Amino acid sequence: MCGRYALEAPRSQLSSRFALDECVDVPARYNIAPASEIAVIRQSPVGERVLHLLRWGLVPHWAKDPAIGARLINARGESLSEKPAFREAFRRRRCLIPASGFYEWQPTAAAAGPARKQPYYSSLKSGETMAIGGLWEAWTMPSGEILRSCCIVTTAANELLQPIHARMPLILAAEHWPAWLSASVADARPLIGPFPAVAMQTWPVSPRVGRSSEDDSALTAALGKEEES
């Protein structure tokens, strides 16, 4: 499960990297957690790429209670067409979620007591902002206001990340962004799979990232190098 990630990219960089026609300001954040308002790239009805803030935790349009979003932060890519919560969004409302990197926790044996989990931070070797495949929805509140929400699509981990966690976010190469945003399900489905391990890097980081109240650049630094970041 992908439950935390970081994004440190100024508006100008995001606009250039993703060829955006519209982009809101996105402050740097190093410990983005579910229920946050996060940067999401969608394709508008007229074909423009726009970046707006959506709530992380998908609320299907048919949901009776928006609290369901707390359980729908991730969607397994292999079963998007079968799950009622994701099926319609996979057909019509796919999106990109920009990220500098993401965190996963590796279970580790403890000499005594319960097993502990060591967090790892993973990013692209190129240093570029990655595009994570996502889904989005619009839910109408009783007041008539629209709640727009999203989730991260996951896939099997690549060889680099398998020792840490069995799953990873769906990372899409730039040449696949147009198809993910607007193509048919038949064309989008083949894009679901692990990103090449050779293009990624990962390292252990401070367990501070487990506290959502923590949010500083040292969280992404390798253990022992936090003071250098």
- What overall form do the CA principal axes indicate? globular
Give the second-level CATH assignment, the architecture.
Alpha-Beta Complex
Count of structural domains:
1
Distance between the termini: 27 Å
Largest sheet: 8 strands, mixed
Question: Can you identify the CATH superfamily?
Answer: SOS response associated peptidase-like
Question: How does the SSE layout of this entry go?
Answer:
Layout: E1 4-7, H1 11-17, E2 22-23, E3 29-32, E4 37-43, E5 49-56, E6 74-76, H2 84-92, E7 94-99, E8 101-108, E9 116-124, E10 130-140, E11 146-156, E12 167-169, H3 177-182, H4 185-188, E13 200-204
Parallel strand pairs: 2-5, 5-11, 6-11
Antiparallel strand pairs: 1-3, 1-8, 4-5, 7-10, 8-9, 9-13, 10-11, 11-12
Offer a few descriptive terms:
single chain; 229 residues; mainly beta; hypothetical protein yedk fold; eight-stranded mixed sheet; five-stranded antiparallel sheet; globular
Verbal overview:
- It is a single chain.
- The protein is mainly β and 229 residues long.
- The chain has one domain: SOS response associated peptidase-like (hypothetical protein yedk fold, Alpha-Beta Complex).
- The chain contains four helices and 13 strands.
- The strands form two sheets. Strands 2, 4, 5, 6, 7, 10, 11 and 12 form an eight-stranded mixed beta sheet that branches. Strands 3-1-8-9-13 form a five-stranded antiparallel beta sheet, with no helix packed on it.
- The longest helix is centred in the middle third of the chain and has 9 residues.
- The protein is globular and about 55 Å long.
- The mean pLDDT is 95.
